[in-house]
Amino acid sequence: MRLFSGLLLVLSLFLFIGCGGAGDAAQPASDDSNTSTGTGGDVNPTPNPTPDPDPDPDPVPVQPVPGDIVAASEPDPNATYPSLGQPIEPNPDPFVEPNTDYEKPIIGITAQPNPYIAGSTGTIQLQAADNTGGSGLRDIECSIDGSAYTSCPETVNMDNLSEGLHTVTARALDWDDNMSTEVSYTFYVDQTPPTVSIANAPVAATKDVSAAFEFQSADGGSGVSHYRCKIEDGSYANCNDQELLENLSEGQHTLTVQAVDNVGNTSTPQTHDWVVDLSPPIINVVKQPTSVVYVDDPDPILNFDVSDVYSPNNVSVECKLNGVVVACASGNDYPTPANQPASFTYEITATDALGHSSTQTITWQAVNEAENRSTSIMVGDIRPVDILFVVDNSGSMSFERSNLAERIDGMINIIDGLDWQIAVTSTDVTSTDNKSDGKFIELIGMPGNYILDSSMDPATAQSVFGDTVQNFGGGSGREEGIHASRRVIERYVAGNAQHSNFIRNGADLSIVVLSDEDESSNGQDVRTTPQQFVNLVNNTFNNQKNMVFHSIITRPGDSACLNGQGASYGNTYDELSRLTGYGEQGGAIIGSVCNQDYTSQLADIGQSVKDLQNSIKLECAPFDANMDGTPEVTVLYRADAQQAYSPYNAPKTISNDRVIFNDLLPPGDYKVDYKCKIN
Q1: 3-class DSSP state for residue 470?
Q2: Among 404, 467, 396, 394, residue whose Cα is nearest residue 436
Q3: Of 257, 223, 225, 260, which Cα lies nearest the Cα of 243?
Q4: What is the pLDDT of residues 192-218, one digit of tens each?
Q5: Nearest Cα to Cα of residue 615 among 375, 279, 330, 332
Q6: Measured at the alpha carbon of residue 240, what is the angle toward residues 236 and 246, in degrees to the nearest 5?
Q7: What is the pTM of this model?
Q8: How far apart are CA 387 and CA 580, in angstroms?
Q9: Residue ranges of the chain with pLDDT lower than 70?
Q10: Residue 47 near residue 74, CB atoms below 8 Å
Q11: Contact between 587 and 497 (Cβ < 8 Å)
Q12: CA of residue 461 relative to chain centroid, distance
């Protein structure tokens, strides 16, 4: 009994080892069959000491599944067996009487493939033994997938296996033709990858920064082991059948999923593309009205483009003009109204499919480009003109003052016959004496008198003027001819008697500056700019005063004069002369202080003064409303205030802000209608 117990233990261990890691061994089907099938538990043979001459019929076999080991070879409990792995004997044991061995050999599986494999090869390791004192182990036979039994080695190598279920059955035979109970092992060759599908995923475009996914898979072989996922171009990582991605960035995203079965076959990848859109559409205004448009101009054009990076084909656009919805579309030209003075607001709102919206607002104002103006003057029998000389009385100017004195007749002779007045002041505004700060210079030889006029004998007037301008030197070297002229106007406004008598209502005003230096000597720290002085005259006299500023100076760019008698270029004086019609009929004259003879330039000033008598100064340069090249100016005239106005069609030209007639205007009332452009 001790020997049997030891052999039983060895056999049990053999069968346990043979089944380990490859599936559970089946229990015997019955005591009589000497075979068993099943899918669980270790092999545990039941002793069967004597053959059963009349065994019960075998039960209906159960189809084995991969990993099943069907074990047999139940040993005689009274027999003794050598250790498993006894070599096959080429001849029966000579010490055993033939046909006296009634004990079955035993056989077991010691190594086998996994229940499921991906390759097309497999190996089964067998071990067989005959009982001690038996006839000896004669052969091992194998059947693969139900084929006929053939002799096989203990190591059975199988190649070129097809996909599907495979079963290897083995048995051992001794020399007395005793056959072991069969032992078999079933495994599955799985070469087909699983399939995978994405059952749930985010929509193609979303504003959600999280995304929930659900995957489904199927596999007809070893079964699905797990999933692998990757985002964009990243690396695969294991994932679950339900995944939640969070904190996604704005932009395009791609998820790729694979299913992997239990033998490593990988499915065809499935992808899902979607976009996280967090931004509104972009509105780009291509054309739009300027902030101010003119009523009479063609309607301005508005054009815009709408783009959306992530929803380019799902953007709606709504436009409103002053709160009223109007038809519009991206990329079209739309005339915008400007048919009357008004303010306009055009609002463009673009909304994408996710509800993101942006708004662009364009505003403009339609105004009249020009407005009607009217200038009225009354012309007497002789139209008055007031001539102010502003003379540099610094020490360096004695020659120039002498030149002016000797040649003043060139001007007075030209203006003979006009109602003129002449007064003199200096360019010095720093002192408080009677020759400075816009005060008039008392006339030499005419005590208490400050104004020359056309009632005087021309020769006497020329002599008095010459003596006066040559005898008031010693002034400041900081010449300020423009500021001195300003002080003359301010003294008139203040009611100074001399200045009120000089500047007459309805009279033109001509100012002549003589200086070898610029305003404030070098044009720096100017207290009254040219434009400020023009504005002062216009505001003081309600735009009804014809004013021209003549300059006898070191002309800008005249280097010969600058290196001779001229101390500095008279840039500021030059600017003021150009503002008051330089180069125009009746406009300013710019002379040279370095001329040796002032006759011609004083004569030019006289002619300009005379031409000024033929002109009417307007509030602006008339506007050419119909763009035909000629401003629309209408001149009306009446000889008697009791009469109605009628058109005055005498030949004339328009020069800047003046209407200049070829001949002197006859006495009467004049009304000029025109348009001024609105700034």
Answers
A1: coil
A2: 394
A3: 257
A4: 999 999 999 999 999 999 999 999 999
A5: 375
A6: 80
A7: 0.50
A8: 15
A9: 1-64, 71-79, 381-382, 473, 679
A10: yes
A11: no
A12: 76
